[in-house]
Automatic annotation (TrEMBL), chain A:
Family membership: Belongs to the AzlC family.
Organism expressing this protein natively: freshwater metagenome
Main location: membrane
Record carries keyword Transmembrane helix: yes
Record-given protein name: Unannotated protein
Location within or outside the cell: Cell membrane
TrEMBL record, chain B:
Organism classification: unclassified sequences, metagenomes, ecological metagenomes
InterPro entries in the record: Brnchd-chn_aa_trnsp_AzlD
Keywords linked to the UniProt accession: Membrane, Transmembrane, Transmembrane helix
Organism: freshwater metagenome
Protein name (database record): Unannotated protein
Entry-linked Pfam families: AzlD
Entry annotated with the keyword Membrane: yes
Parts of the chain that traverse the membrane: 39-56, 68-99
Amino acid sequence: MSKHFSPTLRDSLSVSITVGASGVAFGAAAVANGFSVLQACLLSLLIFSGASQFAVVGVIGSGGSPITAIATASLLGTRNALYGVIMAPRLRVKGLKRVLAAQITIDESTGVALGQEQRGNEAVQKGFWYTGIGVFVFWNLFTLAGALGAQAMGDVRSFGLDAAVPAAFLGLLWPRLTSTSERFLAIACAIFAVAMTPILPAGLPIIATAFIAIAVGVRR
Amino acid sequence: MNAFWIATLGTSVVAFVLKYSGHSVPERWLSHPKIQRVNALIPIALLSALVSVQSFTDKTTLVVDQRIVGLAVAITAQLLKAPFPIVVISAAVSSAIVYNLF
């Protein structure tokens, strides 16, 4: 059995299922914020990057314009470009395969792939493809399930879905806080965004914090 | 086309362009340490702002409601190193209880 179930495949599958299952929270959050089931599913199929998807839903849900939503989500998506830079020399693919590789270039596929480095470059490639495709399949299935579930609920507040969205953002944020200065930045940005909400148009207080991050990152 | 469709399709296009460009540009373009650092800090800033705005505002007004309980429970779950689904579910359940009771 273990001969057919390589450690790389095992790593990929366990990440795919646990991360994919969180798609249920996204599908529910999308519908709770006024997106249709079809739009929720398209967000997962086409954007396929959890933080960016939650950002679109969160910004539109709190009254922001589509442009602000696109800009906020895209700033969160820039890290996928850097993952692409890391993965390209390890994958060495062209044409349609590069298009497919790009679409599944996310935190998890890159993370599992780099975790296979000691097992050789073939394992790195397998880790990338298995995890990327696995998360894609499960994430999209669970998005549909969550969207349909939320649609059946009616008043989403009585099921706590209004609190599930900030909790999801917290869950995405927490593992990134590895130093004291990063925790300071997080708290400062959280306070700044809430304080600016009555003053600035909806959505802008969120994206404005990106400039705080840029200022801090360039100066240090 | 309404705001929901523009946001859905617009973000989808930009998300793919970002992913694809990473696979296609020379590595040295994006390997500058300052770019790497800013790239690590931007998600922290935006996600923190999204946590607080989604917890304490309704459109453009500040509100404190059942969501604060959900947030407190989510933070506690994180401190206890709970996995992602537990963080989200415990926040939803606690907020729902408060909403239905009061």
